[in-house]
Design goal:
Strand content: 15-25%
Helix content: 25-40%
Bound molecules: 5-O-phosphono-beta-D-ribofuranosylamine
Structural class: alpha/beta
Length: 226
């Protein structure tokens, strides 16, 4: 029998606010027992988030912490969320379309254990409407980024990125669909790197195990060919 301490899978939560297609990609990857993260919880701040139904149908525990009753008290909302996460023994959090800005209180508590996917090649285009803004700016490459979360919005050490060419007929919708395909490939790979200990956050940098090991332990950048 294998040694459980060597093969222990990291108890992971996915936080969503809507459709949950990245959550589905993460759940599919984590369904394999060799995957280093075990997704044991999907939580949302939106009771009507479509992805919650998907998670329930997949037999994953869910938590709904509606932010509305908390009004402007972001920290009170986060304290409730944090308590639920800890009740499930969560060790790592993936934000996947979680549309609630987190305060430094929450981010500091989970520093190095909180990752996010953003639909642009950060540090370009933080914030919303990234695809329209990329087209407006006339960039030739756009893409997505998985990064450790820092208190500043859409900032933090970058774990992995996928670049996608911008084509002449692109609209924000068409471009977002091409990037979403890459998001679904990139996020599980990035989660595997973090949960498997191949990368970690140290200060403002991502340290890869390859820097200290002789084995090339990871592939931290994905650039699809075109
Ligand atoms: C994705 O584009 C993700 O990068 C961004 O929000 C969107 C969420 O989509 N943070 P989904 O809910 O995962 O389908």
């Amino acid at each position: 029998m294998s040694n459980p301490s060597q093969n222990r899978r990291v108890r992971t939560a996915v936080l969503i606010s809507g459709r949950g297609s990245n959550m589905s990609a993460l759940l599919a990857a984590a369904a394999g027992e060799d995957f280093p993260a075990n997704i044991v919880l999907v939580a949302t701040n939106r009771p009507d988030a479509r992805g919650i139904t998907t998670a329930q149908e997949a037999g994953i525990a869910t938590e709904i912490v509606d932010h509305k009753p908390f009004g402007r008290d972001r920290e009170a909302f986060e304290q409730t969320l944090d308590a639920r996460l800890r009740a499930h023994g969560i060790e790592l959090i993936c934000l996947a379309g979680f549309m609630r800005i987190l305060t430094p209180w929450f981010v500091e508590r989970w520093l190095g254990k909180l990752i996010n996917i953003h639909p642009s090649l950060l540090p370009s285009f933080p914030g919303t409407d990234t695809h329209a803004r990329a087209l407006e700016a006339g960039v030739r490459l756009h893409g997505c980024t998985v990064h450790f979360v820092e208190p500043e919005v859409d900032a933090g050490p970058i774990i992995a990125q996928a670049a996608v060419p911008v084509l002449s007929g692109d609209t924000p919708d068409i471009l977002s669909q091409r990037i979403l395909v890459q998001e679904h490939l990139l996020y599980p790979r990035a989660l595997a790197l973090v949960a498997g200990g191949a990368v970690r956050m140290e200060g403002r940098r991502v340290i890869t195990k390859a820097h200290t090991d002789t084995t090339p332990a990871n592939l931290a950048m994905a650039v699809p060919s075109f």
